[in-house]
Amino acid sequence: MEERDAVVVAGYRLPKYSVLMSVYEKELPENLNQSLESMLKQTYPPSDFVLVCDGKLTNALDVIVKSFQNEYKDIFRIVRIDENVGAGKAVNKGIKACRYEYIVRMDSDDVSLRGRCLKEMLMFAMDKKLDIVGSYVEEFDDLTDKTLTLKKVPLMHDEIMNYSRRRNPFNRQTVAFRKSKALEIGGYSDLKLCEDYDFAVRMLAGGAKGQNIPEVLVRYRVSESTPEIRRSWRLTKGFVAVRWKLFTEGYIGLRDFFPPCFLQLILFILPMRFTRWFYRKFLRDTKITPPTAEVLGREQK
């Protein structure tokens, strides 16, 4: 399939789109390679790919980047930043560089299933009022590739609005959005952590219409350090900071501010085994239904 060919699915003409990814020196080359490949070999491939290098990369990472640039020279573009500025600022530079109205975000260590972008662009084609789209995400073990859990999110706009007062209503690894709407609300903030949650809320507060696809479209890599990161003081401070920002801006009230912050503090204080148990028991689905499993198998072939 040629990138520039018009693609019609179920009577809808799919819009062209840009992929936006940022990477920094601590990423593993093999993870970056797999992530880039998963996006560039979509069943409906991108017409534009912007990779933001947030600071100087290692030689191994640069080799990966240059190899993809040579192979996909017509669409693959690199935006380099001399010093590491953080995810929010790096992504903002990338948003401005993207050529198309629809932007698909991608992390540099996750894996998109081959039909992800086709399905997300089909959503935009079917509903011209949509501004932000996401999906379910599958968490998998970095060492064994074994599926661990399924993270679901609310599907329709009203549910998404309600959920956003307590948690991010989108799996950040799966998000696609309108460039014009993102620029209208000022892009991502300078928050060091939870900038994706803040971005989603500001999009919704700014009038954006959102929807999630009830299907796994991205595989999220989980390593041995993931539970420790989830309960770390750094993440706890970042989570409380974004909650406080939403409270002072009037998006949430005290009833929405305190319970999530209290829970995050409990996760920080209690032993690691509790954090593991809690995420699997209350925030994740450990059972992937047969239809989802079937989709996963089909997409990864």
From TrEMBL:
Q: Which residues form the Glycosyltransferase 2-like domain?
A: 18-183
Pfam families from the entry?
Glycos_transf_2 (PF00535)
Domain of life assignment: Bacteria
* Keyword set, alphabetical order: Glycosyltransferase, Transferase
| GO MF | glycosyltransferase activity
Q: Which family does it belong to?
A: Belongs to the glycosyltransferase 2 family.
Any idea what this protein is called? Family 2 glycosyl transferase
Instruction: Supply the source organism for this entry.
Output: Ruminococcus albus SY3
